[in-house]
Amino acid sequence: MAIAKAERLMNLALCLLGTRRPLSKRELRGSIEAYLEAGSDESFNRMFERDKDDLRELGLVIETVESLDGDAGYLARRDSNRLPPVALDAEEAAALGLAAKVWQQARLAGAASGALQKLRAAGMPEAEDPYAVQHGALEPRIPVHEAAFEPLMLACRDRRPVIFDYRKANAARPEARQVEPWTLECWRGHWYLAGWDRERGAERVFRLSRITGKVRSRPGVFTAEVPDVVTVRETVETWAGETATRSARIRLRSGAGYPLRSRATAVRELGDGWDELEIPYGHGLDAWLVEFGPDVIVLEPVDLRADVVDRLRAVAKD
Length: 318
What we know:
Elements: H1 2-18, E1 23-24, H2 25-31, H3 33-36, H4 41-57, E2 63-66, E3 72-75, H5 90-101, H6 108-121, H7 130-135, H8 149-158, E4 162-166, E5 175-187, E6 190-197, E7 202-207, E8 211-217, H9 229-240, E9 244-253, H10 258-263, E10 266-271, E11 274-282, H11 285-290, E12 296-300, H12 302-317
Antiparallel strand pairs: 1-3, 2-3, 4-5, 4-8, 5-6, 6-7, 9-11, 9-12, 10-11
């Protein structure tokens, strides 16, 4: 059915773009096979009006012209439906090339590369990358190693609910989660999914590296309203530990934990190969501290220390 409708819309668009004078409904019905097969005039009229609205929603400018006899005719003028030529200077072309390199490890790599080829064929300048001199051998990339990335990206795009097995950092076994996916965000080298957890009836954020097994699509539509993208990004940052509400005091082995040192508000040398740091404390800090293993000891607050110990114990059981 979807293929038949797409073909019908394409034929209608070609008829409207290919004519130099307005075409009446009767003429359009006689030119498009799918309309000829309509069972009645009423059925054809409903089909045509839906198709016309769909084409307009897709961006096609369709004019309705009334003849001297009072009959309506339709056409899509080429000059009204032609995009202006793409004109980029050298710096704009370099910026696009830089952006395309970001997705070399994901499904978007092919689309980004194809878009660049089309722009170059249309005359985009092959300018020297001005960023290359400044950054040398550094190359921007967003790493995508998780198998869950592609199906979740498509589910976010198509607004399809999903189900997957998710293992929390302090849990011994994964559990099934039914989620309405909103968006994917990369933060500090890790990918996160923000969405609506149906069973918990609340907004949740999931780290893709903790999704086990396959991501499976589920029929139906979203039951919760999708918030503004900016709000979702703020939620990801909050859950991942970006938004700090308190300060934590930790002991860090000398010469280790440079990402922690870069966020520290105070550093004091203790001797014997250890330093004491004060760092902003937000949601998700316990999961981040666990990644540094024996190089970090949490001193306070007590609840953060308990969370880190629980996570380490869960890892030790494996």
